[in-house]
Amino acid sequence: MEQHKQLNFILIVYRLGMLVLIVTLLFGCSASAVTPKTEDTKITEISIMVPLHFPHSPSEESIALLEQLTNTKLELSWVPDGIYSDKMNTALTTNSYKKVMFEKYTDYVSIKSSIRTGAFWEIGPYLEQFPNLKQLNGDILLQTAVDGKIYGLYTERQSSRQGIIIRKDWLDSLGMKEPTTIDELYEILYAFTYQDPDYNGKDDTIGLTDRNDLIYGAFKTLGSYFGTPNNWELMDQTFIPEFETEPYMNTMNFIKKLYEEKLINADFPVTSKEKQRELLIRGTAGVYIGTMTDVQRLYEEAKQFNDAVEFTVINRIEGPAGNRIWSIPNFNGLYLFSKKAIPTEDELLKVLAFFDRTMDADVANLLHYGIKDKHHTVEDNKVILSEELTALRSQEVNALYSLMIADLSNSNVMEVVEQHHLWSYAAQLVEDNNKFLVLDPTVGLESLTYDEHGSELYRIISDATYNYILGAIDNNEYEQKIKLWRKNGGDRIIAEYTADYFN
Residue 456 — φ and ψ, nearest 5°? Predict the structure, then answer.
């Protein structure tokens, strides 16, 4: 009997225990179903300094949707592209970083010393944790590396978008054809300046509008036409800088002639990108040399001042060595991650998670095309960019493109089946550029001297180039500036690149 009572007691306790366990499990499942973990719902705050290539920053509606999709609160500092390099230099010297800083490809050398001294996170070891970031192109990542380590997420660009945007209505009014050679281009610049292409009876037009940029302005593209190497030329087992070559001198003489004959805006060495664009948009200049895919935006803005304006795009200008165009590696900049503003590894992972999320289809297509049925439409899973919505996209969406990483190789970005005819044509010519690219032979090579002193040494050459064009110095004085460049570190750069190439 006693044993029977003990058995009943044990069974009662067991049943009570099972009941408690079941209730606990049910309550736990119910709670987890309605209350996500705090770490999953907490909004990530991210500050980003990003270049603004368009007149308008994105609309608040577009940003709000981006924040909603990525579960973030974004502090986006939009800096006009024309002053971006100066702002970045100020941030470097004052150590006043946002969490994420965009660095242009052309300015990357100036920040490598800060990278080496630990100002930015090495992100390479973390990329495998993210489904999209781990698929980034390994070759491009290596092009961005510092001492073999990966510090940035790259914005992907075509090898060369450079060419000529020209007033087609002015060509037609003067009975001229699109240029195919340097001489024909010169003739057009001359006619646009002196033959009243807008038929207003006033001497108020010039051929070429340019700005204070020897790379993304007109100079380097014209240099390609003359046969100038892309930064460096490998000759007799050593590297020769482009500014010591005859084609570079020919390019300077060509622009010097344009300046002396007033075929170019006289203040181009101090002209901003915005002012350069304005001269084309308002009908003062008829030729713009730069990124061909800018044509759609320039056209839409020019239409506001002259409804009859027409543009066309040209990419093949034959020079002494045929068709040539300079190229960049397949990134035009990097997003870097400040150790000061992002003090912990946990926070870094959250910031990287945001960029990983931007590569998913819903976010990537928002950044590229805007809000569905407002800025674009979709048919058969393909995007239609109607011309009627072009102005709205320009005002509210286009600047978001700067936030996209690795977009050219992202299969989540939807294909476009209908878009502005000028943009489509420019995109075809960008693709055509791939047939005659001039590569920089030093890409992937290391020169510590170049990384530490390249920017200050470049100023010697850029100042000498402008001064020669303006007639402030002659050929002998220009040669002296080259000797100064060599003496102050140029010879060491040449030796380091040469040693790295042959070792």
Answer: -70, -35
